[in-house]
Amino acid sequence: MHDLGVDAYRFSIAWSRVLPKGRFGEVNSEGIEFYNNIIDVLLVRGYLSGAYLPSRFSYPFGNCSHGDSALEPYIVTHNLVLSRATAAETYRKFVDPLVYGDYPPEMRQVLGSRLPTFSAEERKKLLELKLDFIGVNYYTTLYVKDCMFSSCTSPYSLGDASVYLTGEKDGVYIGEQTAASAFFIVPRGMEGIVTYVKERYNNTPMFITENGYAQPASAVNDSLNDTKRIEYHEKYLAVLSDVVRYI
């Protein structure tokens, strides 16, 4: 990795390696040693710890003196799309180029010259390598307010999308709130996302790859009596069953 000139490495801890029996067993010393060795080598090679890419997060995501957070993410994802076309691998981000050979016109209108363009040969390659399926990670639904043509009182809007996300409207939540403050139980949202993906991407095969209920931390016995989680999945699966049957 160092020889390739890679200047950042993101990794996660596989807790099953550290706690193979969960809260009911001992810590696996070999797992701790494994991650200690990784971190030690990274430090020797000059990789420092941090939540973001080293010294490249500019406003509004950070306060680094280098980098351009309004431009560089699009260059990265553009190259990911092209890499997928070359290596026949499927990436989750920016599905339109993988189906239609280009970014959505709305995206080009908003981003202008900051959004890279595909050559005729690149577009041809994208269209030749069809998607096997689209994976959808869906947990919750929120209200969206336009911040491009309307005024938003909130100091934060979602980047270049220029929208404000909220789970509350006129003092009423969009659904029952879970332990994760921004996650609400909104089963009808499952119908919306499945229908949207089906219609926009020409009925490409689709899998719900992630979905789940945010449960509060509690005693083991309380966690095992997870009636809220069961209720959550019953409601979402019922909606999914209906939408698969009728759309």
Characterise the protein shown here:
By secondary structure, this protein is α+β, with helices and mostly antiparallel strands. It is 38% helix and 10% strand. The protein has helices at 15-18, 29-44, 72-87, 96-100, 105-111, 120-128, 188-200, 220-224, 227-246; strands spanning 134-137, 143-146, 163-166, 168-169, 172-173, 176-177, 184-185, 206-210. A two-stranded parallel ribbon has the order 1-8. A hairpin with a 6-residue loop joins β6 (176-177) and β7. α3 packs across α6 and α7 packs parallel to α9 (227-246). The longest helix is centred in the C-terminal third of the chain and has 20 residues, at 227-246. The N and C termini lie far apart (47 Å).
